[in-house]
Amino acid sequence: MTMPVVAARSLTKRFGAFVAVDGIDFEIAPGEAFGFLGPNGAGKTSTMRMIGCVSPRTSGELRVLGLDPAESGADIRGRIGVVPQEDNLDTELTVWDNLMIYGRYFDLPRADIRERAAELLEFVQLSDRRDSKVDPLSGGMKRRLTIARSLINRPEALLLDEPTTGLDPQARHLLWDRLYQLKRSGVTLVLTTHYMDEAEQLCDRLVIMDNAKIVAEGPPRKLIADSVTREVVEVRLPLDADTAFEAARLKRFGDRTEPLADRVLVYTDDGDATMHAAVDEGFGADSMFVRRASLEDVFLILTGRTLED
Amino acid sequence: MSAPVRTAPRPVLALPLIGWRRRPWRLVERNVLAYRRIWYIFLSGFLEPLLFLLSIGIGVGKLVGDLNVGGHLVPYRSFVAPGLLAIAAMTGSLLDTTFNFFVKMKYSHTYDAVLASPLSPRDVAVGEITWALIRGATYSGAFLLTMLAFGDLRSAWSIVALPGAVLIGFGFAGVGLAATTYMRSFVDFDYVNMAMIPLFLFSATFFPLSRYPAGLQAVIRFTPLYQGVVLERSLVLGDLHWTLLIHAAYLLAMGLLGLRVASKRIGLLLQP
Ligand SMILES: Nc1ncnc2c1ncn2[C@@H]1O[C@H](COP(=O)(O)OP(=O)(O)OP(=O)(O)O)[C@@H](O)[C@H]1O
Ligand SMILES: [Mg+2]
């Protein structure tokens, strides 16, 4: 068996009395794309920072590249790349100098960094901005530069904390494409996200975190298949409707229902049949449509809340 | 379409990555890159002590006349110049360890990125202090040359005045860095100014200690800039005594203590 890139057992992080990460277990295999999915405050960043050796764990076991962050932090940091949740590019330097100095922090020779930096700027499509300062760059460009910077030391594993939050769809797709390429070249990806589609697209395997704990773990499609029906009918109701009451009425058309603020979700293996049955019986709604079950539904069923809550 | 990027691990990065002795220098390198484009802001550090020397040393010197230092009569300008040197060493080292450090730590998040690399909080502290000392030493060196030109270096021991200025810089850089880690907002920098102005005025910089009231003298003897002023003045005027070692030890201890506290605080603040 190959050694996991990251292995955590009962990993715990407390800030004073507050528990941000509550005894979680997981293993990330080499070359895997592994995701942490969860709502705000779930403990994703706290976990990533412990893996990135910039936050000491409170208790439990953690190994990164087989080493203990408490003892070998600098060595581990030298072999991984980090894209933090908030961009922290050096605003006093140009795009090019940001890459140059970051390579120097890793003690790489200047000639190597120059070659690598040119290659990376090409990779993230920023070659034409190499002499620009950081501030005038758009959000997406900054994010791409941060990714380029994180790759300067040819990391074995890349930690990405919400890599595409705040980006427009086009910028997100460009980033996803780049992350695919990295994965193909053998880099282990560890990422956090709020986005279902991102998790489904990028992750081989993921854990869903809620309230500092892991509530589910597995490949995205398997998680969905295991805990949700194949399809979902979304029934949108007028604003003044009592969704709990309507959910009870809709129950007999599907396997289970979840009332939300403005709509009811009906879980079923045959969405069309369910929808037609409801319409035929004269069920009134603003609109109804069928969609495939997603990770959002997994989260909802496991926690009773939506990810945006 | 972009070129494929080779990212597979390479044995080049075999451990140990970077010696701890070299690591702080990376931060110095970063500051060189950052200041390269705005080198002219360095000028004020050269001009300020020079203008003081001209206005106070020469202007006020005309009114004051000569002073008796350790049995020798020296012109007021020669008396005040080493005081100004000590002040320049202090202010020069505080620029990058207080205000600029605060901005980089709290607003630009520069060190968050640095600490994700192999560098540690201690490397950040040592690096910024090293940089501050290099910057301070340039100012002090230039000022010493000016003093040489005016004939104010009255002893061969003046050669030690530059390391002396670096030592003053170290003391203040360390404490400045440590104090800055306790600041919550820019408003707190008023305290730095509040501390610096009396030091500036009352550290036997402009008058001999004997001219102060006795009670105040006792207090001044324990203040940090006074140590530097005595050190520089004695070296430049050749008025040597073994007690200079105490003044030097004071400044060294101040710097080391500051460095220690700052390293710890940077870790606590940026790696919670
Ligand atoms: N330095 C800190 N001091 C005190 N509490 C903290 C600190 N950092 C994080 N927390 C708390 O720990 C909890 C988990 O935070 P964390 O940043 O890990 O969540 P997250 O899953 O990354 O959320 P988001 O999706 O909003 O980024 C939050 O309640 C947060 O307020
Ligand atoms: Mg987060």
Helix share of residues of chain B? 55-70%
Percent of residues of chain B in beta strands? under 5%
CATH architecture classification name of the largest domain in chain A: 3-Layer(aba) Sandwich
Count of extended strands of chain B: 2
The two chains with the largest interface, and their residue counts, are: A-B, 45 and 37 residues
Write down the oligomeric state: heterodimer
Which outline of chain A best applies?
elongated
Helix-strand pattern of chain A? EEEHEHEHHHEHEHEEHEHEEHEH
Average pLDDT, all residues of chain A: 91
SSE pattern of chain B: HHEEHHHHHHHHH
Ligand names: adenosine-5'-triphosphate, magnesium ion
What about the largest sheet of chain B?
2 strands, antiparallel
Strand order of the largest sheet of chain B: 1-2
Our measurement of the CA-to-CA distance between the termini of chain B, rounded to an integer number of angstroms, reads 41 Å
What Rg of chain B do the Cα atoms give? 21 Å
CATH superfamily of the largest domain in chain A, by name, is P-loop containing nucleotide triphosphate hydrolases
Q: Quickly count the domains of chain B.
A: 1
Q: And the CATH topology of the largest domain in chain A?
A: Rossmann fold
Structural class of chain B: mainly alpha
Number of strands of chain A: 13
Rg of Cα set of chain A? 22 Å
